[in-house]
Design brief:
Length: 500
């Protein structure tokens, strides 16, 4: 879709009704305690709204409502084709509100509105349509159990599923989880990140309009340590699909083990590598992908390629091209102005964390070729895109997920050394390889330990490919593709004796 002008976006901002209440049983409600949490703009530093600070009692009410609706069969037993129709209508409604949702997402997160309107909302809608279509195509199996019995391997909805969402791609991640879980007939509870509650609360308004029965979706806003823990410990929740940090992922496994052994699927952090093999002649494609993967969403991306391995004899050329292209194509400014493609960080707390890593790296004396500082643009939380070269192997730059606009280029003497160093991490989410040779592409893609390896373009695959991490980047399942439906279903065997 064509982008609105800045003047048109400002009008949308001025007229925006900001949603603040939790959503339980089809109604927007305050927290039972009446408590609220302020939602701060990372662009202006001003308060956008106060949203409901739900507690354990609100979680309990939402779970009970979701259970009742699930047991009633109004959604869970609806014919899959009918569920599909409602979800497709829901996708149409979201699409019709692309600008409103994109602007709300940008106001809340400081992401460039151009990305929100052209990537986040359309990708989310595409995911919703894909999984809706799958609602009546997810077959079971027959087992090879011989002539005297029939073994049927079926898939059943779990019941009440909770989806815990991070702040870096709030709307898209919500739709990645909501779509397959609803397509399979579950009742769901969404817990948005406290930094980004707004787009999720607006999304659910359109669910009712699309015909989803009341109580099939609830949204519980509030602090992760209260609401997230209450969901994790609740005996009525059958599964949790989580995207966020490895630290909180571990906690969810603990909650599950201390409560009802609910199914836990974790999409976690990364320290993803990009490897430019020694056969690449023209570096420009790799350079532009290195910049995009490092600085898209101000580096707050779980697959950010923050370790870029380049043949030693091409390193200086690569770095020069990176800095030149960065200056030419990356426009930093108010993210609500569609002319800019680089916005703020999410919150003051996160800004301080990233700046502390930056200051530490500078103090340690690693070579830095650009950035290295905060930028004063209005009152926004901006950090300049920063490139280090050849940091020491055990530095934070090489080991820690910084989740900000800081990347490193590392010179290597051979392809083998590049792959060995690429694998020298506790994470295994994504990796990108550049090569002009088909055999090398296959050989080195197999050698890298990551859930997704993309060749000649930084990407996470698409909706038809499972997305999840190896090692400390993931646990228990994947988002996207048919694999996502496995998160939200349980396998049941039905065995019939034909001789009895
Ligand atoms: P986070 O602190 O782990 O928060 C994620 C979600 O968990 C938020 O909704 C948060 O709520 C909630 N939460 C916090 N404490 C909790 C608890 N004790 N129990 C249950 N839930 C709790 O991560 P983040 O800072 O939002 O996101 C950044 C991290 O997520 C990075 O490490 C990044 O790599 C990872 N990430 C991974 C993927 C992927 O697909 N693999 C995608 C995006 C991000 P509050 O906001 O209220 O604290
Ligand atoms: Mg916010």
């Amino acid at each position: 879709m064509s982008l609105p002008t800045y003047a048109e976006i400002k009008k949308v901002v001025d007229g925006m009704q900001i949603p603040t209440k939790a959503f339980i049983g089809g109604k927007f409600v305050s927290a039972l305690s009446g408590k609220t949490i302020p939602s701060m703009s990372p662009i202006t530093g001003e308060k956008l709204a106060d949203f409901a600070a739900c507690g354990k009692e609100d979680v309990d009410a939402a779970v009970k409502c979701a259970q009742k609706v699930f047991n009633s069969g109004v959604w869970s037993k609806m014919h899959p084709t009918e569920r599909k129709k409602i979800l497709l209508k829901y996708a149409d409604l979201i699409e019709q509100h692309t600008v409103e949702l994109g602007v709300l997402e940008s106001m809340d997160s400081g992401k460039p509105v151009s990305d929100c309107i052209t990537i986040d909302v359309p990708e989310g809608v595409h995911a919703l349509r894909w999984h809706a279509e799958y609602a009546d195509k997810n077959y079971g199996l027959f087992s090879p159990s011989g002539d005297s019995s029939v073994g049927m391997i079926t898939k059943e909805a779990i019941g009440v599923v909770a989806c815990i969402i991070p702040w870096n791609f709030p709307l898209m991640t919500t739709l990645w989880k909501l779509a397959p879980s609803l397509a399979e007939g579950n009742s769901i509870i969404i817990k948005p990140a406290s930094n980004t509650t707004l787009s999720t609360l607006r999304l659910v308004e359109y669910a009712t309009e699309a015909g989803l029965p009341e109580g099939v979706i609830q949204v519980i806003t509030g602090s992760g340590s209260i609401v997230g823990e209450a969901l994790g410990m609740h005996e009525g929740v059958g599964a949790i699909s989580f995207t966020g940090s490895t630290e909180i992922g571990r906690k969810l496994l603990e909650y599950s083990s201390k409560s009802n052994l609910k199914k836990i699927v974790l999409e976690l952090g990364g320290k993803s590598p990009m490897v430019i093999l020694d056969d690449v002649k023209d570096l420009s494609n790799a350079v532009n992908n290195a910049l995009f993967s490092s600085f898209w969403n101000s580096g707050q991306s779980c697959t950010a390629n923050s370790r870029i391995f380049v043949p030693e004899n091409r390193k200086e050329e690569f770095v020069e091209l990176m800095v030149a292209s960065l200056n030419e194509t990356w426009k930093i400014g108010n993210p609500l102005n569609p002319e800019f493609n680089y916005g703020t960080l999410i919150s003051e707390a996160h800004f301080k964390t990233v700046m502390a890593h930056m200051d530490q790296a500078i103090k340690e004396g690693h070579r830095m070729v650009c950035g290295g500082k905060a930028l004063t643009i209005e009152k926004g939380l901006f950090i300049a895109p920063t490139i280090f070269v050849d940091p020491t192997p055990n530095s934070d730059l090489m080991k820690t997920e910084l989740f900000g606009p800081i990347t490193s280029v590392i010179g290597v003497k051979s392809n083998e050394e590049a792959i060995e160093k690429a694998n020298d991490t506790e994470y295994g989410l994504q990796a990108t390889i550049f090569t002009e040779d088909l055999r090398s592409a296959h050989k080195y893609a197999r050698a890298i330990k990551a859930g997704t390896v993309s060749i000649n373009r930084y990407c996470e695959g698409d909706i038809t490919t499972p997305f999840g991490g190896l090692k400390m980047s993931g646990f228990g399942g994947q988002d996207n593709a048919a694999a996502a439906h496995d998160q939200y279903t349980e396998v049941k065997t039905i065995f019939i004796d034909l001789d009895a």
